[in-house]
Amino acid sequence: MYIEIKDACKxxxxxxxxxxxxxxxxxxxxxGEFICLLGPSGCGKSTLLNALAGFEKVNSGSVKIDGKxxxxxxxxxxxxxxxYGLLPWRNVQKNVELGLESKKVPKSERAAAAKKYLELVxxxxxxxxxxxxxxxGQQQRVAIARGLAVDPDIIFMDEPFGALDAxxxxxxxxxxxxxxxxxxxxxxxxxxxxxxxxxxxxRIVVMMADPGRIKSVVKVPLGDNRDRTGENFLYVRDxxxxxxxxxxxxxxxxxx
Length: 256
Known about the structure:
Blueprint (H helix, E strand, L loop, with lengths): L2 E12 L2 E13 L4 E5 L6 H9 L6 E6 L2 E2 L7 E4 L11 H5 L1 H5 L4 H14 L15 H14 L4 E5 L7 H18 L2 E6 L2 H7 L2 E6 L4 E7 L11 H15 L11
Parallel strand pairs: 3-8, 3-9, 6-7, 7-8
Antiparallel strand pairs: 1-2, 1-4, 4-5, 9-10
């Protein structure tokens, strides 16, 4: 198994009280899967993502990628956040080239990679613009191109479209789904939006709060047919919604 999470626990102390962000979480992920971590605020989905990305360590249990314990961020994996993280003094091309510079990639190769991935995210012709000249959706496209340019093994995404308007968000969902299929990357995507999860995921990890835990893991049986108004899409969406209304606090085996 490519990614293995076994009995992972993470605790914090807030205002003198112990808070359990992750409570004995276990999950296996195959290479090339698109996984959505779905749940309400406080359910541990961002904490789990941060543990996988190496930004946080679990208190007990284990988090492994390709058989190796995750102890720190890896140059082989990238994380895309909601707040873009573009450098305002660098133009679009130079922002995309940033990771390649740190890897000492020659200038001509950096330029070719920037051109390729800007075209992939629909921003050909924007190379010389600066972040202040772009919309929020365009800035996030640059962040995605920058991440893809270093050819990562895994892309971690923490509610990357959360600050965008609905139309831009839907378009970027379509783009990242297309890119995930073309580039065959493993993607772990945090969201609290059920429809977003159904549109994107191969499997949805449904999480619950107090303490943060996995309630169910649901395989999305839609293939590449993700018609938001289609009967099958709406059926899956409604079944996921039902999961959140179920009273059981224990793990639920759920099949659609």
